[in-house]
Structure formats: structure tokens, C-alpha cells
Write a structure and sequence with these properties.
This protein is mainly α. The protein folds into 2 domains: 16-194, MFS general substrate transporter like domains (Growth Hormone, Chain: A); 219-397, MFS general substrate transporter like domains (Growth Hormone, Chain: A). The protein has helices at residues 16-36, 38-49, 53-70, 74-81, 83-103, 107-124, 126-136, 141-170, 172-194, 219-223, 226-257, 259-283, 289-307, 313-327, 333-341, 347-362, 365-376, 380-397.
Length: 410
């Protein structure tokens, strides 16, 4: 049933906020190790073993694509083994992955480590986090998602510099093992103590179903559902552009503003992603999620269009700040739209399938930007393409199949 009016979700004593804390820690280490840390592994494994960059990069691509396949089955795993068991399996797999990265000696071990990392994504990634928070929050769902997913950005801002610092002082192997122990010490008690479904919640989906839209229960039905595609396709296009820009950001900016200022731009963008999530989280539960998503995509397009026409450090830093403000929210909007338009009973299925599609599409972003740059000799056309993709995505997400678009909250 729907959250009872007697439950004050804004109260700091509401148990759901402890679940948010556990999800924040999960996102912190999952994204820190599983996404942002991959640049560290690339450099250190090349240095330690003399492996070509293409070998390590191919392992990263393999991991991302495998993750995109595995997350489709999140709802099945939740039903079969339960929420807490799935998260603990993901935590164990991620821990095994980082330990193996520290100790590996041969390329096949690298691929095994990255396969284990994909299992970690399945148990601790965005689909599980969104599903469990969807079950705990009704009025403050957007804020809860924003706070939890800020753990992802904090993982990049805190964990990666910490790994680099530890690597410089005690070596890569000891740094990875130390960080893994820290993850277990922080995440394991939080999961065991705080994670679970609220009373009266369907265990397979975490949905409160009585007042939700009619559920779309199967993946086949979702793929034939227009509302699902007008959410998934634009987010996939926006993330494709976003991944392309993130990977090529320093290469684009360094000739224009220097290496140190380019590094500052990365920090500014990441910091603004945190600010953007917090600001949106305060208001998104009272907003039309599709309209807010379209505005975010349009602001990213505007930032890119201005960036390719400027050489001013101040302007380029401002563009990165504007881009970053909306960057983190691209993974916050889909769960909100799915809950409101598709229904709670199919929540985990829809989020898992949507995340898989977005993950596969966005994996081609860095390659697409690199290809266009190679063909044209500069980043102007490549980033203009990214901006155009954002505008196309904004137009698609505003299309509401079966009902007239409105500015009123959905």
C-alpha cells in the first residue's frame, strides 16, 4: 500500500534515511572502484606488468557490457535470493575483484577480476539502490535518490585521489587491499543493520502497489510500451553524449587552458554534480520529472555549444560547472519517471532493463567522440554532435504517449 500519512519521511528518525546512508556507502565504493578507479588500474597495471593499454581498456569495455547484460535480471535475483543476500553477494564479488586486481599476474586474471566487478554492479549498483529506496520513500523519493547517488560522485572525488595517494606511499597492491578492507568495514555493517524492505512491501520489487499505475509485468511488455521508450531512449542518448564528454574532457581542454586548469575543470564538474543532485532532490518530488529532465538535457547542450566557441578559461570552467550541475541527475530521473508512469509492481524489471539499454548505448560514447575527432581533426564537430544528441533527447522525453504534455507535476 502507499506510504501512510502517519509516516513522516522528512523526519531524521525515519528508518528510510538509514537505508539511504547504506545506499550512499554502496554507491561510494561501487562507483569509486568500478567506474572512476578504472583510470588508476589502467595506469598501474601498465606500469607493473608492461601490458598494452588496449588490453586493459578492452577489459573495461568487457566489464561494462557484461554489467549491462546482468542488470536485466536484477528483479529475478531479488525474487530468488532476496535483497540483502543480493547486496552481500555483490559486495563479496566487488571485494574479490579489487583483491584480485591487487594480486593478479596474468591477463586472464584481469578479465576474471572485471567479470567479478560486473557481479558487484548487479548487487550494489543503481538498479538495486533505486529499487530499495523506491520501497522506503513516497513523498521524499527524489531527495532520497539524490542523496544516495551522490555517493557515486563522492567515490570519484574521494576514493580515487586516496588510491593514488596510497599507491604513491605504500604501492598499488597495498593500496587496493587497504581500500578493500575499509569498504568491508564500512559497508558490511551498514547493509546487515539497515538494508531491508519496509513492512507491507512486495519483496521482489519493493513496490507499493495499490495507487500505482497499472503494472507492465514482463520485459516483452515493457519493450512494447511507448512510455518506457520515451524515457529510456532519451536518457541513453544523453548518457552517450555524457560519457563521451567525460572521457575526452581533459584532452579537449588541455590545449586551450593548460593541464592544471583542465584538472580543475574536472573537479568543478564533479563538485557541481553533487550540488545539482542535492538541489534537484529538494524539489524534484514536486516537479514534472520529464520536464525537469528535458531542462537538464538542454542545459548540457547549451554548455557544450558555448564551450566549443570559447578559449577563455573562465568561460570553459563555467561551462563545465553548468554541465556538471545536471550530469548526476541523468541516473536520478529514470526511476522517478518509471514509478509515476509504469508502476511499482514492475519497478525493478523496468529499471533493470532501462539501465541495461542505457549502459550498452552509452558505452559507445567515448568511441563515437574519438571517431568524429579523428575524422575532423578537432573536437568542435564531436562536441557539437553531443550537444545535438542532448537536444534530440530533450525533445523525446517530453513526448508523453497517450496523454497531452503538461507542465503540471506528473
Amino acid at each position: 500500500m502507499m506510504a501512510s500519512p502517519r509516516i513522516d519521511e522528512s523526519s531524521p528518525y525515519y528508518r528510510g534515511w538509514r537505508v539511504v546512508l547504506a545506499c550512499f556507502l554502496m554507491a561510494f565504493f561501487m562507483f569509486g572502484f568500478g567506474l572512476y578507479g578504472q583510470g588508476v588500474y589502467l595506469a598501474e597495471l601498465q606500469r607493473a606488468h608492461g601490458w598494452p593499454g588496449t588490453l586493459v581498456s578492452a577489459a573495461s569495455t568487457f566489464s561494462f557490457l557484461l554489467t549491462s547484460v546482468l542488470v536485466i535480471f536484477t528483479d529475478d535475483l531479488l525474487e530468488r535470493i532476496g535483497l540483502r543476500a543480493l547486496i552481500l553477494c555483490g559486495l563479496a564479488a566487488l571485494g574479490a575483484s579489487t583483491v584480485l586486481l591487487a594480486l593478479l599476474q596474468t591477463p586472464w586474471q584481469l578479465y576474471l577480476a572485471y567479470a567479478l566487478m560486473s557481479v558487484g554492479w548487479t548487487g550494489m549498483g543503481t538498479v538495486v539502490i533505486a529499487t530499495v529506496l523506491n520501497s522506503w520513500f513516497e513523498q521524499r523519493r527524489g531527495l532520497a535518490l539524490s542523496l544516495a547517488f551522490n555517493g557515486a560522485t563522492c567515490g570519484g572525488i574521494i576514493l580515487v585521489p586516496l588510491l593514488l595517494s596510497l599507491t604513491g606511499s605504500i604501492g598499488f597492491r597495498s593500496a587496493m587491499l587497504t581500500a578493500t578492507v575499509a569498504m568491508m568495514v564500512l559497508v558490511l555493517p551498514a547493509v546487515v543493520t539497515f538494508i531491508g524492505w519496509p513492512a507491507g512491501t512486495a519483496p521482489a520489487t519493493g513496490g507499493r502497489s495499490s495507487a500505482s499505475p497499472a503494472p507492465v509485468r514482463s520485459r516483452k511488455a515493457l519493450l512494447a510500451n511507448a512510455a518506457f521508450w520515451t524515457m529510456v531512449l532519451p536518457v541513453a542518448l544523453a548518457l552517450l553524449a555524457q560519457m563521451g564528454f567525460i572521457v575526452h574532457q581533459v584532452t579537449f581542454l588541455e590545449p586551450l587552458i593548460g593541464r592544471s586548469t583542465a584538472g580543475l575543470a574536472v573537479t568543478v564538474m564533479a563538485a557541481m554534480a553533487i550540488v545539482g543532485r542535492l538541489v534537484l532532490g529538494l524539489f524534484v518530488d514536486r516537479l514534472d520529472a520529464r520536464l525537469a529532465c528535458a531542462v537538464s538535457m538542454t542545459s548540457q547542450a547549451a554548455a557544450l555549444f558555448v564551450a566549443i566557441q570559447s578559449t577563455s578559461p573562465a568561460v570553459l570552467l563555467a561551462c563545465c560547472a553548468v554541465y556538471g550541475f545536471s550530469m548526476g541527475n541523468m541516473i536520478t530521473f529514470p526511476p522517478l519517471i518509471i514509478q509515476r508512469e509504469i508502476g511499482a509492481s514492475a519497478f525493478a524489471t523496468a529499471v533493470g532493463l532501462g539501465t541495461s539499454i542505457s549502459g550498452i548505448v552509452s558505452a559507445f560514447g567515448p568511441g563515437l567522440v574519438g571517431l568524429v575527432r579523428s575524422l575532423t581533426g578537432n573536437y568542435t564537430s564531436a562536441l557539437a554532435l553531443c550537444a545535438a544528441l542532448n537536444l534530440v533527447a530533450a525533445g523525446i522525453v517530453l513526448w508523453r504517449p497517450g496523454k497531452r504534455a503538461s507542465l503540471a507535476p506528473s
